Amino acid sequence: MAEIIPFDDRAGWIWFNGKLVEWRDAKIHVLSHGLHYASVVFEGERGYSGHVFKSTEHSERLRNSARILGFEIPYSAAELDRAKAETMAANKLTDCYVRPIAWRGSEMMGVSAQQTKINVAIATWEWPAYFSPELREKGIRLTWAKWSRPAPNTAPTNSKAAGLYMICTMSKHAAEAEGYHDALMLDWRGHVAEATGANVFLVIDGEIHTPTPDCFLDGITRRTVIGLARERQYKVIERAIMPGDLGKAQEMFLTGTAAEVTAIGSVGEYKFTVGPVTRALRDDYSALVRKVPVPA
User: Fold this and answer.
1) Which residue intervals of the chain are DSSP H helices?
2) In terms of C-beta density within 10 A (0-12 exposed, 13-18 middle, 19 or more buried), how is residue 78 classed?
3) Ordered DSSP codes for 135-156
4) Pairing assessment for the beta strands 45-48 and 236-239 based on DSSP bridges
5) What is the mean pLDDT of the chain?
């Protein structure tokens, strides 16, 4: 097993409340509200060839997630974009993972915490492909998650809030303990929802089907891949998908910042091929993220 390098003991720089601080000095108090009450929102982004892919969309979503949780991030989307670029440059990174995060501080401790300071940090680090080239060619193995995505009237499901990922961690740990790579989650109605950190797509007779994101995050990568599919004249259908619909699919894949476009080889008893639609969209996405953006 590879040696684990703790994330609190690394060299480099983290952007913290408006300035770069040394990595090991980017600390918060144990009584921060976000740690106790999950008043935390975050983004997962990637830098390719020195540019954060769809940086502004991510910054705007971060700010919107905070508003959904009842607080305002004290930096504009443009300021966050510049901070990401500054942090990448300080760490001498061009291809990397980018993690902006915002949380309520330690000024108040209790369920009610309107007077807490809103803290913002951005970290960047090297992160290779989420799955190995061999797995990407044969497809990853998923099992069914025990936990379900909650109904929109029970949780802020259209935000990228840290608390919503508790059942994702539990589901992924359970899947890995059984020898799988990830878990497929249903929603509270029994419809197919998403994997633990990525959206899902099925290819049925040449058409692409994906769950309607009405109780889970409508991923930026998801929307990007839908756009790429339509450019190729694939028909994309967003609808309620039942578990049995997997038996009709020839291909299945995940999309997400970390997963990018990753083929699924199986979900429980259902088997899939890494077919032409998945390969085409995987290649299209890989080319798109490495295209140098044209300045506005």
Assistant:
1) 33-37, 55-68, 77-90, 133-138, 166-177, 220-231, 276-289
2) exposed
3) HHHH-EEEEEEEEEEPPTTTS-
4) unpaired
5) 95
Active site residue 160: yes
DSSP-derived secondary structure for 240-288: ---GGGGGG-SEEEEEETTTEEEEEEEETTEE----HHHHHHHHHHHHH
How do residues 219-267 score in pLDDT, each as one tens digit?
999 999 999 999 999 999 999 999 999 999 999 999 999 999 999 999 9
What pLDDT is stored for residue 19 in this prediction? 98
Catalytic residue selected from 92, 117, 146, 160: 160
pLDDT in tens, 199-224: 999 999 999 999 999 999 999 999 99
- The reply to whether CATH 3.20.10.10 applies to domain 133-289 is yes
Taking alpha carbons only, the member of 255, 249, 263 closest to residue 135 is 263
Residues 6 or more apart whose Cβ sits within 8 Å of residue 156 = 68, 69, 164
What distance in Å separates the CA atoms of residue 258 and residue 96, rounded to the nearest whole number?
10
* pLDDT (0 to 100) of residue 296: 55
pLDDT at 131 over 80: no
Asked whether the predicted pLDDT for residue 2 surpasses 80, the reply is: no
Between CA 47 and CA 54 the distance in angstroms is 9
Cβ–Cβ < 8 Å for 215, 188 = yes
> Could you tell me the residue ranges of all domains in the chain?
13-125, 133-289
Tell me which architecture the domain covering 13-125 has in CATH: 2-Layer Sandwich (3.30)
Asked if 253 and 263 count as a contact pair (C-beta separation under 8 A), the reply is yes
pLDDT tens by residue, 21-38 = 999 999 999 999 999 999
Q: Tokens for 139?
A: 């497809």
Rounded Cα distance, 215 and 153, in Å:
9
Residue 106 has pLDDT above 70, yes or no: yes
Residue with tokens 């088997």: 271
Q: For residue 104, which phi and psi values (nearest 5 degrees)?
A: -75, 140
